[in-house]
C-alpha cells in the first residue's frame, strides 16, 4: 500500500514489493512462499520470523541471527521472484504470525514486510510439483514430445 517514494537523486525509485505471502503443508514440513516483484538486480536479503506470545523469533535470516531452536529445522530456497521457507517437523507449537521481510542492497524502499497467520488445522497441502514444473517445464515438454518425435522418425523411414 506504500507508494514508492522517488529518491531525491535523479534515479528511478526502486520498489521491491512483496506481492504475496502464502503457507501450505508439505508432508511434515511447513512451506511459506514469499513472492515479490523484482525491480532491481541488487542482492536480496531476507528474514523469516514468527511472532507468538507477543515475542518475535527469527527462524531463518540473512539480515540477523536466527534462533537455535529453529535454525536446525529451517532452510530457505530462492527462486526468481520467490523466497521459500521450509520448516521441518511442523507442529501446533509452531503456530503463529509468520513474517517475511525482504531487503535489496542499496534499496531505500521501506516496509518490505508481509505477515500471515499460520494455524495447522487451517493449512492446505502444497500443490504438487508446481514449483518443480515451473523450473522444468521445457524438460517436461521435451519428454512429452519424445513419443511424437519418434513417431515422426518412424514415418520418415
Automatic annotation (TrEMBL):
Family matches, as SUPFAM superfamilies: Immunoglobulin
- SMART domains referenced in this protein's UniProt entry, alphabetically: IGv
What's one GO MF term for it?
Answer: GTPase activator activity
Q: Where in the cell is it found?
A: Cell membrane
Q: Name one GO biological process term.
A: integrin-mediated signaling pathway
Q: Name one GO cellular component term.
A: membrane raft
| Boundaries of every Ig-like domain copy | 8-117
Task: Tell me which UniProt keywords the record has, alphabetically.
Answer: Cell membrane, Disulfide bond, Glycoprotein, GPI-anchor, Immunoglobulin domain, Lipoprotein, Membrane, Pyrrolidone carboxylic acid, Signal
Q: What is this protein called?
A: Thy-1 membrane glycoprotein
Organism of origin is Anhinga rufa
Q: What is the lineage of its organism?
A: Eukaryota, Metazoa, Chordata, Craniata, Vertebrata
Per UniProt, what is the name of the gene that codes for the protein in this document?
A: Thy1
Amino acid at each position: 500500500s506504500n507508494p514508492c517514494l522517488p529518491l531525491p537523486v535523479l534515479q528511478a525509485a526502486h520498489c521491491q514489493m512483496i506481492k504475496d505471502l502464502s503457507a501450505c503443508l508439505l508432508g511434515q514440513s511447513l512451506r511459506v512462499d514469499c513472492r515479490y516483484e523484482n525491480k532491481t538486480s541488487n542482492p536480496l536479503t531476507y528474514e523469516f520470523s514468527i511472532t507468538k506470545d507477543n515475542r518475535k523469533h527469527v527462524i531463518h535470516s540473512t539480515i540477523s541471527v536466527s534462533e537455535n531452536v529453529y535454525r536446525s529445522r529451517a532452510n530457505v530456497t530462492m527462486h526468481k521472484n520467490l523466497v521459500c521457507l521450509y520448516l521441518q517437523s511442523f507442529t501446533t507449537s509452531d503456530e503463529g504470525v509468520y513474517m517475511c521481510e525482504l531487503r535489496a542492497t542499496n534499496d531505500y524502499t521501506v516496509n518490505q514486510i508481509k505477515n500471515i497467520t499460520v494455524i495447522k488445522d487451517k493449512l492446505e497441502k502444497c500443490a504438487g510439483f508446481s514449483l518443480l514444473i515451473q523450473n522444468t517445464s521445457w524438460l517436461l515438454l521435451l519428454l512429452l514430445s519424445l513419443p511424437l518425435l519418434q513417431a515422426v522418425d518412424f514415418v520418415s523411414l
